Amino acid sequence: MWSTANMRGVPTTPSNSTSAEVCCAAQGVCTYTHIASLGKVILGLDVALLTMNLGEVARFIIKPEYGYGVLGLAPKVEPNETLDYEIELVSFGKPLPKFPSQAELAESRKRQAEEDRKMLEDNPPATAFVHIFYGKDEWEVLVSAEDKIRINNHKVPLYLNRALCKIKLNKWADAEWDCDKAIEINNTLPKAHFRRSLVFLGKLNDELAKEDRKEFWVIDKATKFLVEAETSLQRAVALTEGVDDAQIVKTQIDLKRAKLTLQKYIKNYHEAEKKLYKDNIMDRLVADNKKKQASELQHELEHAFEDMPSLE
């Protein structure tokens, strides 16, 4: 019954890393065919399959500790039941494919997305932009009020999303225009006022950066940016009805920091202006005045003795 070698060099017994097709029978009749991967069935079947040769039929009495144990397998197997198997090893081969875990699937999707992104960057597709223009008269006359509301409701998120993109690109003028258009359609959107405050905070930070680089900047312009940022942020806070928002709180802190920096720079500017005025104007005026006074005194002394008679 037992075959220990194969004349053609092909293995005749399964190993721990194989899957096997087995025929399980009762009273000599094959009741079902099962594809078993070792390590995925009861321990008794694993041990049994490792002892069998290809085409062999064998009967195995499996004790509960090698079967389904104290739990059993309701409703077919009672707890602590001894199992009686008649098995024919029909074939065996490579292990059954392993189903990937959730982590492996996520890593595979991430890797595929990175490959797709790189391929898109290396081979950018042709892009077409379509702009649909309405004349002002057409918009007022041909478009109904309901259609205007529906169109504007779609335009607002487009303006706000594009404004956010422009903010991330530091394109402040474009972002300001988008925010203003969204506010023009709906003045009660806290997101529109908040992003408008981000625009002017960005403009203010750009002006302050010029001071760090020792470049020319205008105090009045920076002050205007600060006022606009504070006004828009206050409006956004009012529209949120006191609900704490992490982004708003962070922007408030950033705006306060920028305000303190601007005040410090303005103070330094005024002090430098006073010093410049003193060094280049006041000190020169004082020196000129002293020279003039000394000249006048010398002139008075020279003419004081002109009317006195000669001693000769």
Structure description:
This protein is of the alpha+beta class and 312 residues long. Among the domains are: 19-93, Roll (Chitinase A, domain 3), CATH 3.10.50.40; 136-273, Tetratricopeptide repeat domain (Serine Threonine Protein Phosphatase 5, Tetratricopeptide repeat, Alpha Horseshoe). Helices cover 56% and strands 11% of the residues. It contains eight helices and four strands, in the order ββαββααααααα. A four-stranded antiparallel beta sheet has the order 2-1-4-3. A hairpin with a 2-residue loop joins strand 1 and strand 2. Helix 6 (190-212) packs parallel to helix 8. The longest helix is centred in the C-terminal third of the chain and has 59 residues, at 246-304. The protein is elongated. The N and C termini lie far apart (167 Å). Residues 255-307 form a coiled coil. Keywords: Coiled coil, Isomerase, Repeat, Rotamase, TPR repeat. This is peptidylprolyl isomerase.
